[in-house]
Specification:
With about 250 residues, the chain is α/β, with parallel strands linked by helices. The protein has 2 domains: about 120 residues, no CATH class; about 90 residues, no CATH class. Helix content is about 35%, strand content about 25%. Helix 1 runs antiparallel to helix 2. The longest helix has about 55 residues. The radius of gyration is 28 Å and the shape is elongated. It starts with a helix and ends in a 7-residue tail after the last strand. The structure holds zinc ion (ZN) (2 copies). One zinc ion binds next to loops.
């Protein structure tokens, strides 16, 4: 009689606590899913932005950047219901610093909780950093008189990520390497897409890379045939960014 009551008690106990235990385990599982997704998102945002910041010196606009981040996050996190990038600003200045990059990602993670409290959570991550643009942040703004000064606006060529020298267009260092260009419908007509990196789907307005002296082909960023590339800039701009004239061609 006593032992029967005990058995009944254990059964009752199990009936009450087992579901709670299972729900507890599942809930921990869902928290882990939310945390790991949020951490993934933060890591990918930092990774993409650090590449962008490193190229900021030779890159005047980054219109395709939010789309690129979005595509990566979507691909890496399949539990995401939707994602949007918000407030993207590239190389802007506030009162103390220039070359700032800022953006945020808003996203929703789908959940199928055993207890229907909610079926998704919405999160937002924001990131702000400074692009590598070659200027120091001493806090003093450029005076208006400097903007009116007539500098040497002749065009020279620099390797934004490799060299410290500026060159003439005809210099062999320039002609042997690719030139960074903005993809326009006209460029698309005049140049053929590279057969290795297949840049057909690169959106208009993005940077592509062309070898002007050899074969009218354009490449996407990261194509292994484009190891180094040049960009053009005004001579005074190059000097102020710390570039010095090339010894071979004498600069510009
Ligand atoms: Zn040179
Ligand atoms: Zn290519």
């Amino acid at each position: 009689m006593i032992s029967n009551t005990k058995k009944g008690y254990f059964t009752l106990e199990a009936a009450i606590f087992l579901p709670i235990f299972i729900i507890g385990i599942l809930t921990i599982g869902y928290f882990m899913k939310i945390y790991s997704t949020a951490e993934n998102v933060t890591f990918s945002m930092i990774d993409e932005t650090s590449h962008l910041a490193a190229q900021a010196c030779g890159r005047k606009s980054a219109v395709s950047f939010p789309e690129k981040v979005k595509a990566r996050l979507r691909e890496e996190n399949n539990s995401m219901e939707w994602i949007k990038t918000v407030n993207f600003r590239y190389l802007y200045s506030d009162s103390r610093k220039d070359g700032l990059i800022i953006f945020g990602c808003r996203y929703r993670i789908a959940l199928s909780l055993p207890v229907k409290l909610t079926d998704s959570v919405e999160l937002e991550s924001r990131l702000k950093c400074r692009g590598f643009i070659g200027t120091k942040t001493d806090g003093t703004a450029m005076p208006f008189s400097d903007m009116e000064k007539n500098g040497d606006s002749s065009i020279v060529w620099v390797f934004p990520m490799w060299g410290e020298k500026f060159h003439k267009e005809s210099c062999r260092f320039v002609t042997a390497n690719a030139v960074q260009k903005v993809l326009t419908p006209r460029l698309k007509r005049e140049y053929k897409p590279c057969e290795l990196c297949r840049p057909e789907d690169v959106p208009i307005g993005s940077y592509v890379y062309c070898f002007l002296r050899a074969g009218n082909v354009y490449h996407r960023q990261g194509c292994h045939t484009v190891e180094k590339y040049t960009i053009e800039m005004e001579k005074e701009d190059a000097l102020s960014k710390g570039y010095r004239p090339c010894k071979t061609c004498g600069g510009g």
